[in-house]
Amino acid sequence: MRTPSVVAILGSTLTGEFEDVKLMNELLTKKNKKTGWNTPTHVDAASRGFIAPFLYPDLEWYFRLPLVKSINVSGHKYGLVYPCVGWVVWRRKDDLPEELVFHINYLGSDQPTFTLNFSKGSSQIIAQFYQFIRLGTEVTIVLCLF
Ligand SMILES: *Cc1c(COP(=O)(O)O)cnc(C)c1O
User: Does the CB atom of residue 81 touch ligand 1 within 6 A?
Assistant: First the structure.
């Protein structure tokens, strides 16, 4: 059986320790070459994903590594946001499996959506965006509406 994905944790919840995502990428690249697989990596950056780029700007752990296809970050763990806000981003649109996207006929047109609930306000995203700007961070947010 083929491994569908390998998960690296960038910031253990208990200790904050980073797994070596770059080494994992190198080892998985060799394994893929040897077996003919095309196994990607997901980075669970829930607890340190918003800290790592500032504390360790040279650390290679995200889309710089070719096998990293998706990353999740828990915005709510950093404060100054609404409870529960979290993010998952994919490298390319094609990396989000189509079977996870719900197609809703809304007022006569197709509205593809990927969320845990269909109706979800954007206030959480906007509030976190506001905090980035307020704290002096330039941010570009690309909202992907399929
Ligand atoms: C907190 C945490 C999660 C869960 O994230 P939630 O946004 O709370 O659902 C997953 N993985 C790690 C490593 C975490 O620290």
Answer: no
